[in-house]
Amino acid sequence: MPHVEKGMAVGLFGGSFNPVHEGHALVGEIALMRLGLSQLWWMVTPGNPLKSRTELRPLAERIAQCRHVASDRRIKVTGFEAALGLRYTADVLKTIRTRNPGVHFVWIMGADNLKSFHRWERWQEIARTFPIAVVDRPGSTLSYLSSQMAKTFDYARIDEDDAPRLARLSPPRWTFIHGPRSSLSSTALREAAKPGRDL
């Protein structure tokens, strides 16, 4: 895990980054700016239990690509989940909390993931481990109103104007952050890269 100091506000942005693209960089930029973070960890996962592994690029390759794209020095690219043999986000967050007492973490996800968040293993436990910042993505702006997570934790939502305080609030707390959106997606880029497709 990247080095942190007590009192820091640290964002956690996990995913397969398969491949990484400017949309990831935009989410990172928005999170750093709106949440007042000391660091943002890009946690490159060995694989997503909800997705097929058939098109998954090697972890080392994805980490190297992320480091190339992540230009802000506050972004720390890491693949510690694989080293620790962790599979589910709930276990990853529990491990982070145990190993980093006194650090204020906030889980960051794109709004496109909010729609299916209730399918994640122990999703309510995730919401109760760290506050969550949901960053707007094209076609997903209204997901914070219709998703099961948003309905279940409606009482815990704070106004996005209060986003700079989010990391230091006790979970469950979450907010939806509007901002510039990139239409790029890893799925679309993989499809475009298939033989016979125009990039």
Automatic annotation (TrEMBL):
One of its GO terms (molecular function) is nicotinate-nucleotide adenylyltransferase activity. Residues 12-191 form the Cytidyltransferase-like domain. Its EC number is 2.7.7.18. It catalyses: nicotinate beta-D-ribonucleotide + ATP + H(+) = deamido-NAD(+) + diphosphate. Pathway: Cofactor biosynthesis; NAD(+) biosynthesis; deamido-NAD(+) from nicotinate D-ribonucleotide: step 1/1. Keywords: ATP-binding, NAD, Nucleotide-binding, Nucleotidyltransferase, Pyridine nucleotide biosynthesis, Transferase. SUPFAM superfamilies: Nucleotidylyl transferase (SSF52374). Pfam families: CTP_transf_like. GO terms for biological process: NAD+ biosynthetic process. CDD domains: NMNAT. Catalyzes the reversible adenylation of nicotinate mononucleotide (NaMN) to nicotinic acid adenine dinucleotide (NaAD). Belongs to the NadD family. This is Probable nicotinate-nucleotide adenylyltransferase. The gene is nadD.
